[in-house]
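sorry for the late reply, my laptop died twice this morning and i had to redo everyting from scratch. anyway the thing you sent over, i finally got around to it. pasting the sequence first so we're on the same page, its 219 residues, then the predicted structure underneath. double check i copied it right bc i was rushing
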Amino acid sequence: MEPVCHFGISAVQRLGELDLTTLALHKALSGGSADARMCTEMDAPGMAGYAFWSRSNRALREHLAREGWTYTNSQSILRTIHPSGAFAITAVSGSGSVGDENADFSGAVRTKNPKGSAIAKLVQRNHEQLPLFSIGMPHKRGEATDIPTWFLLYKSSKEGLTFELSLPVDMHGKNVDTWRERIILSENPFTGPEFDIKRLDEVPSVAPVEVPVKFKGAL
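ok and here's the structure:
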């Protein structure tokens, strides 16, 4: 199966096949962004990134719960599960060319932080189950760890947030970096430096305080 990137109208149509909407993705990211922007320099370093990750998944769940979607935090992976049990979605931070429809399917778009064995097994199952994955087909409900999982990747920069919904099928080293499908919306309401959560993660540079020490010598 050749990898495919959906962009513009094609992306909206593909979301519809997954019973998703542009609004659902925007709700997730706006929820994460709102909480991350509440963080200040007085929070722990990295708190803005953690808040974005947690609250974007929560906002996605809250929006989709009315449509019968459920969720699980098994193995510390925050998955939102389609009502049929056919697949799940998790929001994670990304790096590289997130949101660029011209990016290569392998190596150009990556998860930002190193991933462990649970994510490695998830990606391997995605690869193995590709021939079976179809939202329109009857699906035998099983454990959340056994179903395909899409990544809602987001990346912040001084220009704002970029994002895409993509299906991972391989990783190299500790980063997921190969995708079977990428869905990229042309509509992005998160442009501008106010959406740069990376800026909030930076530890402010503080000039070291020098305390004069005067030795009195041996007593």
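Residues 4-195 form one domain.
thats about all i looked at so far, will dig more tmrw
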